[in-house]
Specification:
Elements: H1 7-28, H2 35-55, H3 58-75, H4 83-105, H5 113-121, H6 151-154, H7 158-161, H8 165-173, H9 187-214, H10 217-241, E1 242-244, H11 246-263, E2 267-272, E3 277-279, H12 280-301, H13 305-310, E4 317-326, E5 329-336, H14 343-352, H15 358-363, H16 366-370, H17 394-403, E6 407-413, E7 417-425, E8 430-438, E9 441-446, E10 452-457, E11 462-464, E12 467-472, E13 475-481, H18 482-485, E14 497-505, E15 508-513, E16 516-524, E17 538-543, E18 549-553, H19 555-558
Parallel strand pairs: 2-4, 9-18, 13-15
Antiparallel strand pairs: 1-3, 4-5, 5-7, 6-7, 8-9, 8-16, 10-14, 11-12, 12-13, 14-15, 17-18
Helix pairs in contact: 1-2, 1-4, 1-11, 2-3, 3-4, 3-5, 9-10, 11-12, 12-17
Keywords: Kinase, Phosphoprotein, Transferase
InterPro entries: Bact_Chemotaxis_CheA (IPR051315), CheA-like_dim (IPR004105), CheA-like_homodim_sf (IPR037006), CheW-like_dom_sf (IPR036061), CheW-lke_dom (IPR002545), HATPase_C_sf (IPR036890), HATPase_dom (IPR003594), His_kinase_dom (IPR005467)
Organism: Geomonas propionica
Length: about 550
């Protein structure tokens, strides 16, 4: 019997089981004796083994079967669920993931699955270390090995654990309070639907342009009604494209666990909002930025246990990852209760590195000082580790978030902790943008990156050092010319009024002067092909209602 037609379904289901197993392992480290979670882990490995056996993928069967046997020993009470068991199970998850990639690419596997199975078969827990004489508390598994999350956030209940993970993922995609079946749809079809919807948005803008020329009230009414229907269609298509955050959340749990173990710190990890849906195209682009933020929180934010106790804090630090939705915006926060950041220290480090002059440092607000961490090469770490301290990372995080049309903010209180907040659009396919005239071309800036527009009189411009500035909300804002940035002739303003928009670059507000502000438009973003895709500062292209093509600027990369 030809089983190749079922390969795609097998790969999808298997990866859902792997995600579920990894989450259960991390959750069990908090509550090793929780019977329902132990049973769910055993069933997950058993089901994965059965699926692989039906498809005749022998290497996957060997690994899954050894994991099942290990969990059987835990379930039967012959073996405690300790950090060693957790390490082996997570190693098995990684091993099967590589095997699935081999299956997907139809290439032979050379992984030593037999050696792994043998290690699981003979595993015995290490004898506990003797407690110091002055330690009155009972021994527990090392907390540095146990990055934990509350059961409600990571571990399905016993009844839910029996359901196939894929069904749970599909269930999470459904709007709350609605019932109905689910169906698998190829991602290519979803992308095609988005493209068609985007083309309709572009055509709507064209109709609006024609209606303005004809001055026909009936035509305007018809286009207005069509625009409402199109908005509803776009919203429904976007719902189909949404995937729950849990599709990538297991990576973060394991990343925090790994860093905590490597740095020897005690960490309690909490994750909330895993059911919140995000655009499929955005999810994968969030993995690296969030991973860096979490690793930084553990390695650079949380203090050593002894330092925490001397400061009157619990020995175990807490890192929280929270996802929430507010209408058409997604908010993601990474919060730690560590040492926090001191704005004065940030400014002093920037001045010492030559990033700022002492005079510029005095002008920075505390919030702007914290955003200095997003400047390339900036770091206050006292030593470089393989996790953080090289001055790279937060600048890439900020650039990646801005490229998604989002914003990044940092709040911190010395001795209390740090919170990094990301605000993102629900979709990156259709955006609202400010269209501007620069020389002979038009460009678009996502409105999420625009704080406000200003018409500035030349009399309001001040020269401070070598920079031109103007006052806005009692803050000195530097001026830049978008014409100069793009290498175009500078604009002329015979009436003495400079049109500009205010955005944020390198942690502080800046005014970008343009030739004209042409208003806000709803645009369908089209990705650029080679070689244009490699141009710094260009995030894509779009077509206006009159058929003119505009470049969508990525200000983070441009400035």
């Amino acid at each position: 019997m030809d089983m190749s037609q079922y390969k795609a379904l097998f790969l999808s289901e298997s990866r859902e089981y792997l995600r579920s197993i990894a989450e259960q392992v991390v959750a069990l480290e908090q509550s090793p004796g929780e019977r329902s979670a132990v049973d769910a882990l055993f069933r997950g490995a058993h089901s994965l083994k059965g699926m692989a056996a039906s498809m005749e993928y022998g290497d996957v069967v060997v690994v899954a079967h050894s994991m099942e046997d290990l969990m059987a020993r835990v379930r039967d009470g012959a073996l405690p669920f300790d950090p060693g068991v957790a390490d082996l199970l997570l190693e098995g998850v990684d091993l099967i993931d590589v095997l699935l990639q081999d299956v997907e690419q139809e290439r032979p596997s050379t992984l030593p699955t037999g050696d792994f199975a043998q290690r699981l078969a003979i595993y015995t827990p290490a004898p506990p270390k003797a407690a110091p004489a002055d330690q009155a508390e009972p021994q527990e598994p090392a907390a540095a090995d146990a990055v934990t999350a509350p059961h409600s956030a990571t571990a399905p209940a016993a009844a839910d654990a029996a359901a196939p993970p894929a069904a749970e993922a599909e269930k999470a995609k459904e709007p709350a309070g609605e019932a109905g079946g689910t169906v698998r749809v190829k991602t290519e079809l979803l992308d095609h639907l988005i493209n068609l919807t985007g083309e309709l948005v572009t055509n709507k803008q064209r109709l609006l342009t024609i209606a303005g020329e004809l001055a026909s009230p009936p035509l305007n009414d018809a286009i207005s009604e069509t625009a409402k229907l199109l908005r509803s269609l776009h919203d429904e298509v976007m719902k189909v494209r949404l995937m729950p955050f849990e599709a990538i959340s297991d990576r973060f749990q394991r990343s925090v666990r790994s860093v905590a173990k490597k740095s020897g710190k005690e960490i309690h990890f909490e994750l909330t909002g895993r059911e919140i849906g995000l655009d499929r195209g955005m999810l994968e682009q969030l993995v690296d930025p969030l991973n860096h933020m979490l690793r930084n929180a553990v390695d650079h934010g949380i203090e050593e246990s002894g330092d925490r106790e001397r400061a009157g804090k619990p020995a175990r630090g807490t890192v929280r990852l929270a996802v929430s939705r507010d209408r058409d915006r997604i908010q993601i926060t990474v919060r730690d209760d560590g040492r926090g950041m001191e704005p004065a220290t940030m400014i002093a480090a920037a001045v010492a590195k030559g990033i700022l002059t002492p005079e510029e440092g005095e002008l920075l607000s505390p919030r702007q000082a914290l955003m200095l961490s997003c400047i390339p090469g900036f770091s206050t770490a006292k030593e470089v580790t393989d996790i953080s301290g090289r001055g790279v990372g937060m600048d890439a995080v900020n650039a990646a978030i801005q490229k998604l049309g989002g914003t990044l903010g940092i709040e911190s209180e010395p001795g209390v902790g740090t919170t990094i907040s990301l605000r993102l659009p629900l979709t990156i396919a259709i955006i609202h943008a400010l269209v501007v005239q620069v020389g002979q071309v038009k460009a678009a800036i996502p409105v999420n990156a625009v704080q406000r527009t200003v018409e500035l009189s030349r009399r309001q411009i001040e020269n401070i050092g070598k920079r031109q500035m103007f006052q806005l909300d009692d803050e000195a804002i530097p001026l830049l010319s978008l014409n100069r940035v793009l290498g175009m002739p500078l604009g002329r303003f015979p009436d003495g009024i400079l049109p500009l928009f205010v955005t944020e670059a390198r942690g502080r507000r800046v005014g970008i002067v343009v030739d004209r502000l042409l208003g806000q438009h709803e645009l369908f973003v089209k990705q650029l092909g080679r070689p244009l895709a490699k141009m710094a500062g260009v995030a894509g292209g779009a077509t206006l209602g009159d058929g003119e093509i505009v470049a969508i600027l990525d200000l983070a990369g441009l400035l």
